[in-house]
Protein 1
Amino acid sequence: MRVGIGFDAHRFARGRRLVLGGVEIPHPVGLAGHSDADVLLHAICDAILGALALGDIGAHFPDRDPALRGISSAELLRRTARLARDRGWRVANVDATVILEEPKIGPHVPAMRAAIARALGCGEEAVGVKATTTEGMGFCGRGEGIAAAAVAALAEAPSADSPGPERRGA
Ligand code: MG
C-alpha cells in the first residue's frame, strides 16, 4: 500500500462558476483559478501524486500552461489516476474534507462522490467526502475562500504486462 496527503485552497471570485468535487453548485460567487478551480479535486490529485512520490499538481499541470486554461479538474483527476495505473497502482480509496462556511454542500455530496469515483475508475464506496466549517475562524471562516484536505490510499494493481510496482524491470 501507499498513502498520500493533499491540501488546497482557492479564494472566492465574482463571475466564476463554483465547481466542487466535479459538480457545479449554484452560488453567487465561484473560485478563482487557472482551471475550473475545483479545490476538492485538486486536493485529491495531490494526495494521489503524494502517494506516488511524484511531486505536486503544479508540477504536472502548471497554471502557466495555456492548454490547461479553464480545464475541468475532473480531467486532471483522470490524468492523475492514469499516472498511478501506468505505474502499477490503483486507487484503493480516497477521503476528503472540504472546509467552508457557505454554501452547504451536503445535498451535493452523493453527486460529488459519483463524479470522483468515475474519474478515478473506482467504486463510490471507496470515496469519502465530508465538510466542516471553522466556526468563523480564519480565511474559510471569514468566507474568503474554500480549502480542502484529502488522503488517498493506493494498492498494487498487478496485471499480465505489469507485474506490479517495484518488481517491474527486476
Ligand atoms: Mg488548486
Protein 2
Amino acid sequence: MKHLLAPSLLAADFANLQRDIELVNASDADWFHLDVMDGVFVPNISFGMPVIEAIARHAKKPLDVHLMIVDPDRYIQVFADLGSNVLTVHAEACTHLHRTLQAIRAAGMKAGVALNPHTPVSVLSEVLPELDLVCLMSVNPGFGGQKFIERTYEKTRQMRALLNEAGCTAHIEIDGGVNAENAAALYAAGADVLVAGSSTFRAADPHAAIRAMKG
Ligand code: DX5
Ligand code: ZN
C-alpha cells in the first residue's frame, strides 16, 4: 500500500498560513489535514469555513477534512462546496452513520469515519461498503501535541483485518501523536495514511520530517 502523509494545519503558524501551505505544496506530503472543532464535541474550537476557503485557494493537494463537530450532516454540502476531497465524521457524533456516509459520497467526496480511542472497530462492521477511510484517533481529539496512545497498533491491526475480510480497500488513517519514531510500526500494522501536526510544523527541518514519516 502506498504511504500517504497528511500534515495537520492545526500546528501551522496561523499568522503565516500561506507560507505553511506553500511548504506542504513543495514537500513530499500528500494531503492537507484540516481539523474542524466546534467546542461541543471536543473541548476546543479551531477554525471554520472562511479559513478553509482561504486555505483551498492556495492548497495544491487534496483537502482531508476532519470534522470534530456534533450533527455533521448539517454541513456536508458546505464542505463539498469548499473543495473538500475527503470528509471525515466521528462515529460518536452520528445517530444515522450509514445515511451520513451515503450523503458524503453523494456530494462527491470520499467518506471517512473517525473513532475515538474508546470506540471499538466493531462499530463499523455494518458500514464497511460505505467507507473510503477510517481514521483511528491515537489521542483524544481536541488538541495537537498530545502523547500517542500505544493501544493504537493493535486497533490498527484489528481494523485492517476487518476491512480485509470484507474485501474492502478503505484507507486507515492514524491521527494524533504521530512522529518519525512510530510511523514505520503504524504502516506495518496496516495504516496507510498518517496525520502529523506538531511533528511536521515544529520540526527543525519540516521537509526532512515529512520524508522520514513517509517511510
Ligand atoms: C486532534 C486532531 C489532530 C491533531 C494532530 O484532535 O485531530 O489532527 O492536529 O496533532 P499532532 O500531530 O500534533 O498530535
Ligand atoms: Zn485530525
Protein 3
Amino acid sequence: MGILLSRIRRQIELNGPMSVAEYMALCLLDPEHGYYTNAEPFGVGGDFTTAPEISQLFGEIIGAWLINAWHALGKPEPFTLAEAGPGRGTLMRDILRTAAIDPAFKNAANPTLIEASQKLRTNQAETLATEAARTVWLDDFDQLPEQALLLVTNEFFDALPIRQFIHHKGRWMERCIGLNDHEALRWQVGTQRITAQELPRGATENEEEGAITEIAPARESVMAKIANHVAKHGGAAINIDYGHAKSGLGDTLQAMQKHEFVDPLIAPGQVDLTSHVDFEALTRVAMLEGAYAFPIKTQGDFLIQCGLLERAGRLGAGKSVKVQDQITADVQRLAGDGDKDMGNLFKVFCVTQKSSTALPPFGS
Ligand code: SAH
C-alpha cells in the first residue's frame, strides 16, 4: 500500500511537478504497482462495470456487427479479429461464441488481443477457455500482421493518458501534480507554457482564469496506427467509449473506486483513472492517415439499430419473470438515456478504409 505514492513523491521532489500524462501512465500501468497490473477492477466486487460485463447481449450485438462488416468488406481471408484493452476477456469470448453462426467468418479470423497487463492476460486466457489456444497476445498495434483488420475496443481509449492545460494569468500552462506542505499530492500550475498550436480545437487564447482543457497524444498515436493499418490493409475498427463529439474546454479526468467517483490524487495505483474521449480529435487523426471515420453514434442508437430489442426478446423467451426482468434492466442500462444508463454518454466511433463501404448502421 502506498508504494507508488512514495515513488511519485520522490520523483516530484527530484524533478518538480509531474504532468497528468506521466501521473496517469504510472498509476495505470506501472509494471509493479499500476492499477491494471495489480487490481481486480471489474464487476460488482470491483471498481466499475463495463458493458460486456453487464450482459452477453452487448458482445452478441458486436459479434453480429463484425460478421456483417466482414461480409460487407468482401470476406478478406485470413483476417485479424482483434480487441485492444480486453479487461477480463468477456467481450471477445461473447464475440467468438456468436461467430459460431458463421463458420467461414470464424475460420478466417485470427483472434488477437492487445493487452499491456500480464495479470489481465492470464484472466483473459481463462475466460476464453478453449479459444485461448488459437488467440495471439500482442503488446502494441505495430505488431499487427499485414492483413485486413477487424478491431473492437470498449473503454480502452479512456484509459490512455491525457495532458491537461490550465489557463493561468492570461496564459495556458501545463496542469501538473505537486506536493503540499504535508507531502500530500496537490494540483499545481506547471512551468511549461503551452503554445497555440498545442491547444485542442474549441480552446482559445482568451479563456477565464482556471479554465482547463485536455489533449491526448497517446490516444492520437494509437488511433493513427489503427487508421493507418485499416487504410493500408483494409478492415474496420469499432471503438466504444464515453466522450464528446466536439473538442472543447473542461476537466474530464475521473477516478473510480467501488463504483463511486473519488479524488484522482487520493490513492495512486489503487483506483481507476480515466477521462472522456475527444472523438473530434480522433476523427481528424483517422482522416489524416487516409482512413474514413463515420460520424459518431450514441451507444443507445447503435445497439437499438443493430437489433438489441429483438435479441433481448429472444434471450428472454420462455425464461422466468425474474430472468426477463433482469434482461429488461440490462437493456435499459446499456441503451437507455437515464442518469445511470450508458445509452447517451457512450459513443460508437467507426473507422474504415473507404467512405463508400456502408457498414450498417453506419453510412446506411
Ligand atoms: N474492454 C474491457 C476493459 C476496459 S479497462 C471491458 O470493457 O470490460 C482498460 C483495458 O485496457 C484493460 O484491459 C487495461 O489493462 C488495458 N490497457 C490500458 N492501457 C493499455 C495500453 N497502453 N496498451 C494495451 N492495453 C492497455
Protein 4
Amino acid sequence: MNKPSPNIMGSRPQIKQLDDAAANRIAAGEVVERPSSAVKELVENALDADAKRVDVAYADGGKTLIRVVDDGLGIAHDQLQLALSRHATSKIDGSDLLNIHTFGFRGEALPSLGAVGRLTITSRIEGADSAAEISVNGGQVLPVKPAARGVGTTVELNDLFHATPARLKFLRTDRAESQAITDVVKRLAMSEPYVGFTLRDISGGGQGRVTFRADAQSGDLFDAVLGRLRSILASEFAENSVRLDFEREGLSLHGYASLPTYSRGAAIGQYLFVNGRPVKDRLLLGAVRGAYFDFLSRDRHPVVALFIECDPTLVDVNVHPAKAEVRFRDPAAARTLIVSGLRHALTGAGHRASTTVADATLGAFRPETPVYQMDQQSRPAAFTPVQSGFAEVQTDYSGRVEEAPVEVDAPLGAARAQVHENYIIAQTKDGMVIVDQHAAHERLVYEKLKAQMAVNGVASQALLLPEVVELSENERLALIEALPTLTKFGLVIEEFGGNAVCVRETPAILGEVNAINLVRDICDELSDQDNTQTVQDQIEAILSRVACHGSIRSGRRMQAEEMNALLRKMEATPHSGQCNHGRPTYVELKLADIERLFGRT
Ligand code: ADP
Ligand code: MG
C-alpha cells in the first residue's frame, strides 16, 4: 500500500485548512470529470434560468473551448462574483434538500470550472442598461467589467484542466469527448422538448459545423416529447415504439419504448429521466432489462425514452456529485413501475411487429436494377432464391382455395400456402403476410405456459418409458436445487444415482418431446442464470427454453385449418409479433409495396 504514513519523519502531521482554490480543485474532480460534464453543468444552468434557446459550441472535443449561450433570466452585475463562489446558489435555501425542482442546487459548478479552466461569464438581466462580464483563471477572480449582449448568459470555458495537467492525461480522443458532449446535450434536449438546442463543433474556427439541432417543440407534452425524439433518435423509432402512460403507487411513467423487434446490439439507446433529470441509474436500467427479458435475447437491447415523475421527496438526487444517479425511497416500487409499465404497453401492442422488419424484407427483395433490364446472370443474389423458392411452392389444399373460409379481413389474413414447410403465406385485405411457423408457434406455446403457470402450474403427462439423462456434477446439483420449481413447470425429475437423473413426466402442452434435450437445455439455462435476476425473470427464462421444445418444427407440413388456427391464435396472443428471442414471427408486405417491387407504381 502506498498510503502516506501518518507520522512522516517522526513528527505528528499538522491539520491545515485548504485555501479556496485547492478546495475548488478538489470539488472539480467530482463534478467535472471531462468536457461533457462541464457542458452538462452549463446547459443545466441555462435551463434552470428558463432559457428557451440554448446554443452550445465546442472545439477539440471541448478541451480547448466550450461555450454555452442562453436567452434565460441572466445574472445581475452585483451577483456575478457570488455566482463564482463555492456553495453559492439561487436555487435552494438549504432548508429542504429533498424538495428540489431544479437541475442544480449544490452551487459548485461555476467555482469548480473556474478552478480548472479559464472561465468567462457574460450576462444581462431584463431591465439592465448593459451586460457585465466576469472572468476567473485558475481560481483567480478578475474584477467585473461592462460588456455587450442581450438578455441572457454566455459562459465560455477555455483550456479545461490546464490548471490540473494530470487530469488532461485522462481525457480520451477529441472524437470520444465530442461524442460524450453530444450525448449529454441530447439527453438534456429530450428532457426539455419546449427548448430549442443547437450544438456546434467549431474546432476549425469560424461558425463551425452544426452537429445537432433540435427545434423548440409545441403542443401537449406527449406530442412535444415525440417530436423531440424524432429529431434525436432514428426516425423509425416513432413508428416502432409504443407509448407509455402509466401510474402506480404515486409514481408515474410516460414516454416511448421500442417494440422488441426493433432492438440494438448495445444498451446505448436507453434514456431515463427522473423528474425531468437525465439519469443513468443501474436500478432503472436493470428494470428495463427485466421488462424486455421475455422478448429479447441477452445480446439485444431495446430503445427507450422513459420519464418517471413523482413527488420530489420520494427520490433523493443528492447521492451523486454529478447527479447522474438517484435513490428512490422505495426502490422496489420504482422497479415495478418500469417493469409493469413497459409490459403493459407492450402487451397492448399485441401481435404488432416493427415496420423495419417489412422494410428490411423489401430491401432484400428489391432488385438493384429494374427487372426488365436483367438477364439471368446479372440478377442480384437476393432475387434468385426467391424465384426458385416460388417454383417449389407447396400447397396442402390445392383446388380448395376458393372454398376455404375467407378470413382476409383478419389482421393476419387467410392462409393461402405453406412454402418450404416452414413459412405460411397468408392473404390480407391489402397485402400479404409471411409467417415463420416455428417462431410463431414457439411464442404461442410460451405464452400458454406462462398463463398455465400463473393459474396452477403447468399440466404434466407421464412418459411411457422414463428417460435417463447423464449430467455433469455441477449440472446435477443445479438441477436438483431447481426441482421444486421444475415440478411446477410440469417436469418431474428424480435422482438416478451418480450424476444421472431420470425424467418421469414432461409438460403436457409439449406433446411428444425429446426429454433428454429438454433437460440439457434447462441445465444450460440454469448455469447461465445469475443471481441478480428476479425469480420471475428466472422462471420466464426457463419457460422460454421449455417452449422452444414444443414448437412446431420447421419442416412440418400443415393443413389449411391448422395454419388458419395458428394465425387466429397469433392475433389473440400478446407479444406474438416476435419469438422469444426478439426475432419477428411474421412480416407483412402491403399491396402497395408489392406493386412498387414490380415497378407498377
Ligand atoms: P447551482 O446551479 O447548483 O446553483 P452553479 O455554480 O452552477 O450552482 O451556479 C451558481 C449560480 O449562478 C446559480 O444558482 C444561478 O443563480 C447562477 N447562474 C449560473 N448559470 C446561470 C445562467 N446560465 N443563467 C442565469 N443564472 C445562472
Ligand atoms: Mg449549476
